[in-house]
Here is the input.
Amino acid sequence: MGTDSGSGVREEEPLRQPIFWADTSVTAVVAPAPEGPQNQPVRVHSLTELVAAFGDIGGSPLATAVTDFLVNGGQVALAVRSDDGAAALAALDEGPSFQLLVIDHQLLDGRYAEAHALCERRHAFLVTDALPDGTVPPGLGGNAAVYHPTLLGTDGATHPAGPAVAGVYARTDAARGVWRAPAGMTAQVVGAADVSRALTTRELSILNTRRVNGLRQMPDGSVVVWGARTTSSDPDQHYVAVRRLILFLEESLQQGLAWAASEPSTEELWAKVCSEVKQFLTRLWREGALPGERPAEAFFVTCDETTTTPEQLGRGELVCLVGIAPISPGEFVTVPITFATAGRPQ
Here is the structure.
């Protein structure tokens, strides 16, 4: 609806684009290398670009990790050469957006909780290896998944699972959507000749109870990802696909509704926010991200005085409560999304 400028001329509101889908698989890959910029994320799309940025680093942990990510379907890597995990995490905290994090296990040692906290702040997800005994490292939760055992590459060397599995995530996102589990027969690990240790069905079951995702070689010789659980014990955060869908939802809505920061927090604004979020979720539902025969079984949106406290309204904050049913119709997971506004009108 237009507004009256005071001169009798109607001013039309600027057209806004629908909320766009945020990236899901830009991956920060952190590992040592012999040369190149230190603790600076460098965006690369190919090994050619990696060499152009870092020089001849073939065989280094960074080159191996980026290669394993790209050959498995990764499209964009933020390559970070680092010998200091704390410095690398600090650089990523201030750097460009990423959705997946892979970090060399030696740099990650003792910093799992820090890496997980970084992912929570950045709406990202940590993909890493289990400890050598097949257990979850300390300090991890819903924004992480761990895999076991390590891989044997076609080069005969042992490779950590994390970079290759992150590539599988990216491939699955592109082909089927971030809401699909990156596991099963479609989640083949390219470039893996075998796993470092064959797991029995019982061992795979034990890993599952530990919230560790197994990797296994199939009878045809292919290696596949055989699990899709996060490291969280929270039932609402058990599954990689559900947790990453929520992260995608949060990032998409916060980016797509940034315009609200210049709007007064009125009932008109609340209605606009509700309308745009519902349109976005309807698109997700139509794509098959949310089950249910009708939208009411797939999601709900509330944005009004019942979702935002007077103190928040006074600070210029607006909370939109989004419920999605990612597994079963009508079984909602609620996600509060907080936006900045221009505050209550005087």
